[in-house]
Structure formats: structure tokens, C-alpha cells
Amino acid sequence: xxxxxxxxxxxxxxxxxxxxxxxxxxxxxxxxxxxxxxxxxxxxxxxxxxxxxxxxxxxxxxxxxxxxxxxxxxxxxxxxxxxxxxxxx
Length: 89
Fold this sequence. Notes:
Elements (H helix, E strand, L loop, with lengths): L1 E5 L8 H4 L18 E6 L19 E5 L2 H12 L3 H4 L2
Parallel strand pairs: 1-2, 2-3
């Protein structure tokens, strides 16, 4: 399985459930860290509004695509459109 995250930090930050005493401790999150593969598309790897580092960004199962999300996704879709799977072959 795969989860694709665009422009989110705090709402997918496992520190909310794994670390005590942070501004996001106890906050409900999207459990993206449970996926086998995580793709993060974000402008940078800086902490979100809370200021809490996101360990998901450093995980071995995470691919981080830095930069403008719109242009990054457009480029990714362009590269994928001619794959054999996309062509149905």
C-alpha cells in the first residue's frame, strides 16, 4: 500500500501519538505512518505550524518530493502517463 501526502505536516505527524509533552500530543492524526510506502510532496521538510519535527519525513519508507506541490505533481503525472501500466499494456 501507499499513501501520498500533499502539503501536510502536523496532521500526519506520528509524534502526536508517540511523544508526550509536544504541542500536538494527543491530537488525532491521519495514520499515514502505517502505510508500507509514504510519498510526501511538500515545499520543505520544516516543522508545521506546531513546530514539532515530523519523524515520518526521515523514515526509510518515505520518499520526500520537495518543492512546489502543483508543479511536482504535474511533472510526476507527465512522467507516469507513458508507462506500460498507464497504456494498458
